[in-house]
Write the structure tokens for this entry.
Amino acid sequence: MTTYKELQNQIEKLQKEADHARKNELANAIAEIHSKMKEYGLTADDLGLGKRKPMSHVRRPVAPKYRNTTTGETWSGRGKPPKWMAGRDKAQFLIKAA
């Protein structure tokens, strides 16, 4: 019957073999990829590995629609209304377009 210490030694030996095999396989894969890229004249950009393109749609802040005349606080009209509007008519805080 195999002892715990012997099993741990086998695990360590197998882990080292697995690490060595992985390094070799990675080196072979990288060499193969470089070869194909050279053969077909491909670049990292061709493969989508270059710099990422900036987002085409950037969310901009929404202009405020309401203003508290006493404090100057504003609200865009989206989301939960601020406390200074609670129980009041929104129309009295509406920002008039110039």
Q: What stands out?
A: The longest helix spans residues 4-40. DSSP finds one helix and two strands in the chain. The mean pLDDT is 90. The longest strand covers residues 66-67.
